[in-house]
Write a structure and sequence with these properties.
Layout: E1 2-5, H1 15-28, E2 34-42, E3 51-56, E4 64-65, H2 81-92, E5 100-105, H3 108-111, H4 117-125, E6 130-133, H5 139-146, E7 150-153, H6 158-169
């Protein structure tokens, strides 16, 4: 099972990351093994872009910085794609026995076949339900990837969906 949610344009920056971090914590408290990664954005002040870290669930003491500082006035993409690939590999090695997977998003890297895309496919092959955020800009690429196998959820329904997946897996 593959499920996703989106947020409207009025959502505050980082809202999906906060929702998923809270959800991952709640699901881990159920005693089920939850795999995945959450993104933590660290505010550096009004004149600086935030630092972005990925926390692989089960390996919380080793966050992976996925942003790079490009300096003042820079307008290029700050994503460190090598660090994202490292996070995906680290997560892939922790998937066995998981009852649920939570991922930060299906972003530009996943849209072009990188990032967590292979992890999503592997989880689905193993029967691990996957939940993630899909930003508006990547929805068509996600639909092409999912080929009709994904369910759209409202943010208010995430907890219920996850509990249902965990109950069915037990």
């Amino acid at each position: 099972m593959l499920a996703w949610f989106g947020l409207d344009d009025t959502a505050s920056p980082g809202e999906s990351d906060r929702l998923l971090a809270d959800l991952a914590q709640d699901m881990a408290a159920t005693g089920h093994r939850v795999a995945g990664a959450i993104q933590i954005n660290r505010d550096l002040g009004p004149d600086c872009a935030c630092d972005m870290d990925l926390i692989v669930l089960g390996d919380e003491t080793n966050p992976i910085r996925i942003s790079q500082s490009l300096g003042g006035g820079s307008s290029g993409c700050r994503l460190d794609t090598g660090a994202l690939e490292l996070a995906a590999a680290r997560l892939q090695s922790r998937m066995d026995g998981a009852a649920l997977m939570i991922l930060p998003k299906f972003g530009r890297q996943e849209a072009v076949g990188r990032g967590f895309r292979d992890v999503i496919g592997q989880a689905m092959l193993q029967g691990i339900p996957v939940l993630l955020h899909v930003p508006r800009q990547q929805r068509q690429a996600f639909q092409d990837f999912a080929q009709g196998m994904a369910t759209r959820l409202q943010p208010a329904d995430l907890v219920t969906w996850c509990h249902r997946q965990l109950t069915e897996a037990a």
